[in-house]
Design brief:
Beta-lactam/transpept-like, 5-stranded antiparallel sheet, two-stranded antiparallel sheet, 2 domains, single chain, Beta-lactamase, acetylation, alpha+beta, Glutaminase, hydrolase, binds 6-diazenyl-5-OXO-L-norleucine
Length: 305
């Protein structure tokens, strides 16, 4: 397996030259565009890795899967889905357009920024601090890594420049889709995006969703079967934004990307996969990361379809 992974990294490294690291969050510009790494953890807890799998990066939109799980654990599902839809948007991740044109005024799904701001607003806690602590505790638990923390520089960079998200959040408040203090909700959203992980963390979390919410080492049920299924389904239909259709055809694995360069993939009942490659394509997905997953899926016959 190590040979296979090393080869896949070697073969696809060239694609890192065809993309660019994210720059709209200034701090993300510091990433090395040539980095490429992968980690796989299978259902027997075997761990395999190659390339820059140990490099740390911010989780960005991959966090939307975990926050969705938390929102569904914290609230009635019918309440959650009265505030955010279940349909792919077909638009870029940061699009504001449908918030105005859709009759419901609610975001299409919890994987786009507007939808994730809604799920973040549904996290329980009496104070912002308590919500942040609950969130971090949950990330640490599902990644089985107590060292997970927020990258302060990325958080501050995003908070300072995140006016597009700010605009969407105020629109959502105006339309009664989110309640409470908009700046506090945004603060929690920026923090969740700035959580620092590596490929091993993403593979571990991907494995938990792949295993329908049961920790393979302890047998503990951490997330319900239904919530795990819902999260994976959103990953298939919306996880790669307006590239989700092509990704489903070429790779066929539930996956979620982030502009930090991470992709978390979850092969039901088989494995979790964490990929890192900060050079992004035009849609904000890791350009070489997608290629790696495409090769891996073909070689190991991982497509769920
Ligand atoms: O809100 C943002 O724009 C970023 N914190 C997250 C966006 C993101 O990761 C999109 N993914 N490819």
């Amino acid at each position: 397996m190590e040979n296979l992974l090393n080869n896949i990294i070697k073969l696809n490294k060239k694609y890192t030259n065809f993309g660019q690291v994210a720059s709209y969050i200034p701090e993300l510009k510091n990433a090395n565009s040539e980095d490429l790494g992968i980690c796989i953890i299978d259902k027997d807890n075997n761990i395999h890795y190659a390339g820059d799998y140990k490099k740390k990066f911010t989780i960005q939109s991959v966090s939307k899967t975990i926050i969705l799980a938390m929102a569904l654990m914290d609230n009635d599902w019918s309440y959650v889905f009265s505030k955010v839809g279940m349909e792919p948007s077909g638009d870029p991740f940061n699009s504001i357009m449908k918030l105005e044109t859709d009759d419901t005024k609610k975001p299409c799904n919890p994987m786009i920024n507007a939808g994730a701001i809604v799920t973040t607003s549904l996290i329980k806690g009496t104070t912002l601090k308590e919500k942040e602590e609950r969130m971090l505790a949950f990330f640490r638990k599902i990644a089985k890594n107590d060292d997970i923390k927020i990258n302060q520089a990325v958080y501050e960079s995003e908070k300072l420049t995140g006016d597009r998200n700010r605009a969407m959040a105020y629109l959502l408040k105006n339309d009664g889709v989110i309640n409470g203090d908009v700046e506090e909700i945004l603060d929690l959203y920026f923090k969740q995006c700035s959580i620092e992980v590596d490929c091993v963390d993403l593979a571990r979390i991907g494995l938990l969703f792949a295993n329908y919410g049961i920790d393979i080492e302890t047998g503990e049920r951490v997330i319900s079967e239904n919530v795990s299924r819902m999260v994976k389904t959103f990953m298939v239909t919306c996880g790669m934004y307006d590239a989700s259709g092509e990704f489903a055809i070429k790779v066929g694995i539930p996956a979620k990307s982030g502009v930090g360069g991470g992709i978390m993939a979850s092969v039901p009942r088989k494995m979790g996969i964490g990929v890192y490659g900060p050079s992004l394509d035009k849609k904000g997905n890791s350009i070489a990361g997608i290629k790696i997953l495409e090769d891996l899926s073909k070689q190991l016959e991982l497509s769920i379809f």
